[in-house]
Amino acid sequence: MRYSRTDLLQLKGGHLSLDEKLTFADDISSQFPRIRRISDVSVRAEGDYRSEEQRLYVSFRINGTVIVGCDVTGDDVEVPIDTEEDAVFSFNKNEDDITIIPANGNYIELLPEIFRIILMDIPTKVVKPGRIDYPKGDGWEVVSEEVYEQRKKNEADPRLAKLKEYIPQDEQEV
Predict the structure, then answer these.
(1) How distant is the alpha carbon of residue 73 from its chain centre?
(2) Which residues neighbour 82 within 8 Å (Cβ) at sequence distance 6 or greater?
(3) How many CA atoms, within 13 angstroms, populate the side-chain half-sphere of residue 58?
(4) What is the pTM of this model?
(5) Distance between CA 97 and CA 108 in Å, rounded?
(6) Which is the most buried residue in 19, 48, 77, 141, by most CB within 10 A?
(7) Do 115 and 38 contact (CB within 8 A), yes or no?
(8) Are 86 and 60 in contact (CB under 8 A)?
(9) What does the pLDDT look like over 15-55, one tens digit per residue?
(10) Distance linking the first and last C-alpha atoms of the chain
(11) Among 125, 126, 104, 116, which Cα is nearest to 43's?
């Protein structure tokens, strides 16, 4: 997925069409600890090279699965990736627009942009679906937001607890 100007000029009508299956290294978690594995990635892309602008316009469609750790339990969670994004690559060194991706020397490389799109599609918080056995220890526990809200509602305000001492005993039973 690396193209030089010569490669792009040889495309019929300047049109680029891709339908690829990608495999990412299993040691990806050493660079990105949140990601445990990326699998079943399918990339379809349509692009047009405009030689007068020295730019390649590409529309990506990316499908696949990313395995990340659950933010509560640490268990593996499969996150499906299904996204579309457009990108513009340029051989011009004087581009002022930060949305345009510069060529890497004499080559335009699509793989780093595909990886960036996958990273951007992963949610910032991932929780395992279904019933979760929340972790707990000596004097602490992780609870769901619903349980926390319920406990908070049933709990007396500790700042007002001393007032119970001033209520006469015979009035408490009313």
Answers:
(1) 18
(2) 62, 63
(3) 29
(4) 0.73
(5) 17
(6) 77
(7) no
(8) yes
(9) 999 999 998 887 777 788 888 999 889 999 999 999 898 99
(10) 80
(11) 116
